[in-house]
């Protein structure tokens, strides 16, 4: 009775007690079988929980390694597949006023930017130097207000070129042929892009012809 | 009549282990302002690149397996702690008590190894010079020269509270295993 009153325990002696309680012929046999079954069961459970999910993942993707590792890359696909690049196209420059022998008004230059990607691209505020390409003289600054280019879109951006007094003088004194101002200008500097907080600075040199009648 | 005995450490650790997979990410990585957002724990994985989710079936299933493993471990730990003198108690406890310890240590080692590898590779390739990753938590703003372009990559890593919360069931689990010896020795 004393033996029956004791709680069960594991260890070598508990099997003897269980055996005696149950009145089995082989006192430790039942527990040993149970322990072995438990050990095997836990081993199988460990295997199922570690290997099972991996097999299930491959099976659900038709045993395709690539799609099992990484499924749909989404917009990243655009960057990794190559072939797509943003393009810029300069339009006709226009002076904001009359060009005279002693006055060179600011100039507007339309830039059409295309975003071929399926994600937005941010164009940051820009301030690029403007040079007279022939003489390599800095004549002003071209500024651009930042804008977000939507996915797969084309946007017209406008550069406002403002000439410095020295720059105006250089252009009006050196590049007026007959009644016309005729010069190739060049925008130089870093073009700044923002891609979800990643900042890109890409050196740019973009030249364009300026042709305007000079009034007296 | 003898008073009923419990493994108190296991009784505390079990429910916490069952709860842990549902508490969210342990670690977060953020590149830019949504260029790459990664939230990660052994039980969950969420990756967003350029505002869109990127899914990995394999990682998803592995996380599911880890969640199930921990829930089962918690249940086993509870059962073993409620009935510490049953013949199966020790084996169930051994199954459940240290799984979380290995997951936690493995997670830590993985994160450290990734940062170490990133920094090692940065030292090997001239294009990656200036690139540096913090270890586990912190922020940096590497500036890379790719061809002619200069790319600035503000990145931030942070350990979340569930990572620290996991310490509680982990330590209790280990203690429960040590404490359980008394039931075998009696």
What does this structure look like?
- The complex is a heterodimer of chains A (216) and B (186).
- Chain A has 216 residues and is α+β, with helices and mostly antiparallel strands.
- In chain A, 31% of the residues lie in helices and 39% in strands.
- Chain A has six helices and twelve strands.
- In chain A, strands 1, 2, 3, 4, 5, 6, 7, 8, 9, 10, 11 and 12 form a twelve-stranded mixed beta sheet that branches.
- In chain A, a hairpin with a 2-residue loop joins strand 11 and strand 12 (198-215).
- In chain B, the strands form two sheets. A six-stranded antiparallel beta sheet of chain B has the order 4-3-2-1-8-5.
- Chain B is α+β, with helices and mostly antiparallel strands and 186 residues long.
- In chain B, a hairpin with a 2-residue loop joins strand 3 (44-49) and strand 4.
- The model of chain B has no long low-confidence stretch (mean pLDDT 91).
- In chain B, helix 1 (8-19) runs antiparallel to helix 6 (167-185).
- The chains are: A alpha+beta (216), B alpha+beta (186).
- Chains A and B meet through helix 2, helix 3, helix 4 and strand 12 of A and strand 4, helix 2, helix 3 and strand 7 of B.
User: CA-to-CA gap between the ends of chain B?
Assistant: 16 Å
- Give the helix level of chain A as a range of percent: 25-40%
Largest sheet of chain B: 6 strands, antiparallel
**Kindly state the mean pLDDT of chain A as a whole number?**
82
C-alpha end-to-end distance of chain A: 127 Å
- Could you tell me the radius of gyration of chain A in angstroms? 39 Å
Secondary structure: helix percent of chain B: 40-55%
The parts of chain B where pLDDT drops under 50 for at least 5 residues are none
- Helix-strand makeup class of chain B: alpha+beta
> How many DSSP helices of chain B?
6
What portion of the residues of chain B fall into strands of 2 or more residues? 15-25%
Q: Order of strands side by side in the largest beta sheet of chain B?
A: 4-3-2-1-8-5
Strand content of chain A: 35-45%
């Amino acid at each position: 009775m004393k033996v029956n009153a004791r709680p069960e325990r594991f260890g070598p002696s508990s099997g003897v007690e269980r055996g005696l309680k149950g009145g089995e012929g082989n006192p430790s046999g039942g527990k040993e079988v149970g322990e072995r079954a438990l050990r095997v069961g836990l081993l199988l459970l460990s295997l199922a929980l570690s290997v099972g999910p991996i097999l299930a993942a491959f099976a659900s993707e038709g045993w395709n390694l690539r799609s099992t590792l990484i499924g749909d890359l989404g917009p990243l696909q655009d960057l990794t597949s190559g072939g797509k690049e943003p393009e810029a196209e300069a339009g006709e420059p226009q002076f904001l006023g009359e060009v005279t022998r002693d006055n060179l008004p600011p100039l507007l230059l339309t830039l059409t930017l295309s975003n071929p990607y399926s994600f937005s691209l941010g164009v940051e505020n820009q301030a690029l130097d403007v040079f007279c390409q022939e003489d390599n003289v800095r004549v002003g600054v071209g500024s651009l207000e930042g804008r977000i280019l939507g996915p797969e879109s084309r946007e017209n951006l406008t550069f406002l070129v403002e000439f410095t007094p020295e720059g105006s003088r250089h252009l009006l004194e050196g590049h007026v042929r007959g009644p016309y101002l005729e010069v190739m200008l060049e925008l130089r500097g870093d073009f700044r892009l923002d891609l979800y907080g990643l900042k890109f600075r890409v050196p740019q040199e973009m030249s364009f012809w300026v042709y305007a009648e000079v009034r007296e | 009549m003898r008073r009923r005995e419990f493994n108190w450490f296991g009784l505390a650790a079990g429910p916490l282990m069952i709860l842990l997979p549902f508490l969210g990410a342990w670690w977060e990585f953020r590149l830019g302002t949504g260029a790459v957002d990664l939230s990660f724990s052994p039980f969950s994985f969420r990756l967003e690149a350029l505002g869109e989710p990127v899914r990995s079936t394999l990682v998803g299933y592995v996380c599911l397996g880890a969640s199930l493993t921990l829930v089962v471990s918690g249940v086993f730990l509870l059962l073993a702690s409620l009935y510490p003198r049953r013949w199966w108690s020790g084996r169930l406890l051994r199954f459940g008590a240290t799984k979380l310890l290995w997951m936690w240590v493995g997670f830590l080692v993985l994160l450290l190894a990734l940062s170490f590898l990133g920094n090692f590779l940065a030292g090997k390739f001239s294009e990656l010079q200036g690139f540096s990753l913090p270890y586990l938590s912190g922020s940096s703003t590497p500036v890379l020269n790719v061809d002619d372009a200069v790319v600035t990559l503000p990145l931030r890593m942070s350990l979340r509270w569930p990572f620290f919360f996991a310490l509680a069931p982990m330590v209790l689990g280990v203690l429960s295993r040590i404490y359980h010896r008394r039931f075998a020795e009696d």
